[in-house]
Design brief:
heterodimer; A: alpha+beta; D-Maltodextrin-Binding Protein, domain 2; Dipeptide-binding Protein, domain 3; 24 strands; globular; B: mainly beta; Methylamine Dehydrogenase, Chain H; Rossmann fold; 2 domains; 5-stranded mixed β-sheet; 4-stranded antiparallel β-sheet
């Protein structure tokens, strides 16, 4: 690597080592009002299916939220995102790229061990990243890792913070991490018991262990919580606004997109106008307040306003009169089917409400939970606080990589200003393949003895900082 | 002696409660004055983004009559938004865009002052005729300077901002002299600042070496010395200054000094945790141990020193050399005693237990004339979380470290008590 051709993003390793520790300390704020107590067992439950603990397992789409929460407990990533969504050192102390942002060199933090005592090496990191990103060209180089790609990837440091890019040592079918906990017991898809690592490089977690019941419905979780068998449970959107006996509710920023996604691109100008009419016919505010008890915010854009600052520019107010006018001006009559997740009780109600709104505008659409509908009601969690990374992931999930958006995507990676991001998102929306409806919050109920709980804006749990207050004598 | 104390006396938040503490408090004819140590809000410079946005608008509309509306969707104050509004009109005017009534305008411009995690985002939706509105956007980094500027709440003790920085401050110590020096301890170093021309200028950063990972909730203490500059105590690590200004650190489980008392008292700190083990040296009189504790504060008496300990089980223990009294209180983990010369001479500063994970902590002042602490005045609210509270070497002040998450900064304050004669 020609040093002269490199753009160092850090001044030097020493400074970044200091920054790494400093940033770590920022994320582990403990207050003196009541200092954290060590010890105890934290009992949690999550709904999502977790057939595997492998964060690189792309097949577990429905359990994305669950693995996003569990993975950081067992594994580390090379970078983490701070409160502003900016990449900070984690297993990587420093990084640099060439001017084209296609070749990155990441210097690893020395002295890190996996939970089995194996030293973290560049070889192990490269092998792990190759599994998660088969298209990347990853190679070890001394105490650094080189990542090369065909296109410019200025957002790579933020992308490396995704839980799917966790560093995993895969040995004989075992998954070994360098995270704050180790898996003491694992009942695939049912339960997980985690033990705190005394030698964790960023400081031992406060609790001794964490017990996670997996695949429990929100109703079951709440029942166990009210009986005092769980210290923290997830709340379904419609539960979040209610009071919780024996605890308190903590809400995240809106970090999940609820949207209608069409199964194919627009086939004719008439169909495009019909989709526009549907977007105008839906009363998002009513969906949010009546159906979901204000568990989110009406959405006009793919990304929420806290992430971009421009989301309000995309129209989201209903205009049934205009929707009707558009529909009446179209000769083509269309009957769409709207699919939804049958296991989500709220989804059916939302779908029915959308059908009603559409019918008011004269649009023929019927709910159909069966396979292959014309449009599908989907909920997609935003995987990153970095707007560019989150938008790229959404585009991938929503299959928005049309020729037009590919050009936009290329532009996005090379010029990540807010104005450019707006242009890219606008391009995605103009494909009319997706109609954003709401940005939903995720909520958890916590027992009163649970302290230090913080949920990142991408919904991941920061359990190493959680502590349990002792019983009063 | 256990259980003799009345826990309720520590909870007297209700001013109408006819409690003994309040009657006793009337014996003291002082009130503590309220002094703000906050610096005045800085005025950010909006000129550049105003100019950028005006240029972009002008590129769409060209010169002519416009109607402009501005909505503030950000954390900027109303005053700041009005200032930006005026600045934009001025910039637009210089580009030939005149502000007129909506019915006379060739273009309608809706400005929104918004924000995301990192930036202020200013948007302009420009409507001309029946065309789809054009959108232009400028963004600028959000800084702590632009985020500040809110009113300061009343406080009950004198607090002086010593230093603030993004990284966590563990302790700070002020050395009066010419020039005045400030020492700031964090996880990596002791940084020395010197007061020059009314500002703290960095003089030297002395690195702290350690081989084991720091525990979560890292704590550390600086102690100024008479025979050398200072000592720094961190979990499992002791650092001391040598000839010249250099810092030597080594792994050590040596006890940390507690408070300012004669005779001095030291306690062993659990090197992988955030508390003292309870082992004391040389001890409080004949007592060489206390329950594991977070903080201790001495209150000198005529013939002995009463030591207060906030223990890890949430109780307050008072050791006088012979007895160990305990009580459940609503005190937080951190305490420090300060010699004010008011009242009994010494008071205890104590954090309050946080029951609802509130983002703001408070400090309270207690008198302990015998064995029963009672509250003086109202709690002092801090805009953030108090992460450390240590007594200063002179005994007349303490240092509190505050984490203001809204600014992402740690702030070290010197706390002193003043009498209202």
């Amino acid at each position: 690597m020609k040093r002269t051709s490199l753009l160092w993003l850090a001044i030097n390793s020493l400074a970044l080592a200091g920054l790494a520790v400093a940033s770590l300390m920022i994320t582990t704020v403990a207050r003196a009002a009541t200092r954290p107590h060590y010890g105890g067992v934290l009992r949690l439950a999550i709904a999502g299916p977790v057939p595997s603990l492998d964060p690189a397992d792309a097949t577990n789409v429905s359990g994305q939220t669950a693995i996003q929460r569990i993975a950081p407990l067992l594994f580390n990533t090379l970078t983490t995102l701070d409160e502003r969504g900016e990449a900070q050192p984690s297993l990587a102390l420093a990084w640099k790229s060439d001017f084209s942002s296609q070749r990155w060199e990441l210097q690893l933090r020395p002295g890190i061990t996996f939970s089995d005592g194996t030293l973290l090496t560049a070889n192990a990191v490269a092998a792990s990243l190759r599994v998660a990103n088969p298209r990347w060209n990853v190679s070890p180089q001394g105490d650094s890792v080189i990542i090369q790609s065909d296109a410019a990837t200025p957002e790579l440091p933020a992308e490396l913070a995704l839980s799917s890019n966790s560093i995993v040592l895969r040995e004989g079918g075992k998954l070994i991490g360098s995270g704050p906990f180790t898996a003491a017991q694992w009942g695939p898809g049912k339960s997980l018991v985690l033990s705190a690592r005394d030698d964790y490089w960023a400081g031992r977690p406060f609790v001794d262990s964490v017990e996670i019941a997996i695949g429990r419905s929100p109703r079951d979780q709440m029942l166990s919580f009210e009986l005092g068998r769980l210290d923290g449970v997830e709340l379904a959107a419609e539960q979040a606004s209610g009071a919780v006996a024996g605890g308190r509710v903590v809400n995240s920023a809106p970090d999940e997109l609820l949207a209608i996604v069409f199964s194919r691109g627009v086939q004719s100008p008439e169909e495009g106008r019909l989709r526009q009419a549907l977007g105008l016919a839906i009363d998002r505010n009513l969906l949010n307040t009546v159906v979901l008890h204000s568990a989110g915010e009406p959405a006009g854009g793919l990304l929420p306003n806290w992430m971009t600052g421009y989301e309000f520019l995309f129209p989201r107010s209903p205009d049934s009169q205009r929707a009707r006018q558009i529909h009446e001006g179209i000769n083509q009559s269309s009957a769409w089917s709207l699919g939804y997740d049958q296991t989500d009780p709220a989804a059916r109600v939302i779908a029915e409400r959308i059908v009603l709104n559409a019918q008011d505008a004269g649009i023929n659409i019927r709910p159909n939970p069966a396979a292959s509908p014309d449009a599908q009601l989907v909920r997609i969690r935003l995987v990153s606080r970095d707007a560019q990374v989150a938008l790229s992931h959404l585009a991938l999930m929503l299959n928005l990589a049309t020729p037009g958006s590919q050009r936009a995507s290329s532009q996005m990676t090379s010029s990540p200003s807010t104005a450019d991001l707006y242009a890219v998102e606008n391009t995605f929306l103009q494909t009319q393949c997706v109609i954003p409806l709401l940005h939903l919050r995720t909520s958890v109920a916590l027992a009163r003895n649970v302290h230090g709980w913080s949920e990142a804006q991408d919904g991941s749990w920061n359990l190493p900082n959680v502590w349990l207050s002792p019983e009063k004598p | 002696m256990r259980g003799k104390m009345q826990p309720t006396v520590y909870n007297s938040r209700n001013p109408r409660m006819p409690s003994r503490p309040i009657r006793r408090s009337l014996l003291f004819s002082f009130l503590l004055i309220i002094v703000s140590g906050w610096a005045a809000a800085q005025t950010p410079n909006w000129h550049v983004p105003e100019q950028q946005l005006a240029d972009k608008i002008s590129a769409v509309t060209g010169p002519g009559a416009i109607s402009l509306e501005l909505a503030n969707r950000s954390s900027l104050t109303r005053t700041q938004a009005e200032e930006i509004h005026r600045g934009l009109l001025q910039e637009l005017s210089s580009l030939g865009l005149r502000s007129v009534a909506p019915e006379e305008a060739a273009a309608t411009i809706n400005i929104s002052l918004s924000e995301n995690l990192r930036e202020y985002v200013w948007t302009a939706e420009i409507s001309q005729g029946k065309n789809e509105p054009a959108v232009v956007i400028v963004s600028l980094p959000r800084t702590s300077a632009t985020d500040s500027g809110h009113a300061t709440p009343s406080i009950i003790l004198r607090r002086t901002l010593l230093w603030s920085q993004p990284g966590r401050i563990l302790d700070a110590a002020l050395l009066n002299g010419t020039p005045q020096r400030l020492f700031v301890l964090d996880a990596n170093s002791v940084t020395i600042y010197q007061m020059l021309a009314g500002r703290w200028q960095p003089q030297q950063a002395l690195a702290i070496s350690h081989s084991r990972p720091w525990p979560r909730d890292l704590r550390g203490r600086l102690v100024l010395r008479k025979d050398h500059l200072l000592d720094a105590y961190l979990p499992g690590v002791f650092c001391t200054t040598a000839a010249g200004i250099s810092l030597t650190c080594h792994e050590s489980d040596d006890p940390w000094p507690l408070g300012v008392a004669d005779p001095p008292l030291n306690a062993f700190f659990a090197s992988s945790r955030n508390f003292f083990t309870g082992a004391l040296t040389p001890g409080v009189g004949k007592q060489t141990s206390a329950p594991a504790f977070f903080a201790a504060a001495p209150l000198p008496r005529d013939r002995y020193t009463l030591w207060l300990f906030t223990t890890t089980d949430g109780q307050l223990h008072l050791l006088d050399g012979f007895t160990d009294q305990s009580a459940a209180t609503d005190w937080g983990s951190e305490i420090a005693s300060v010699h004010s010369g008011c009242g009994s001479g010494w008071q205890v500063l104590a954090t309050a237990q946080d029951s609802d994970d509130s983002k703001n902590d408070s400090l309270r002042i207690f008198e302990v004339p015998d064995r029963e602490p009672f509250l003086i005045g109202q709690p002092t609210e801090f805009r953030g979380e108090i992460t450390a509270l240590w007594p200063q070497t002179d005994g007349a002040s303490a240092v509190a470290v505050l984490h203001d998450s809204s600014k992402g900064e740690y702030e070290a304050y010197q706390l002193t008590l003043a009498c209202d004669q």
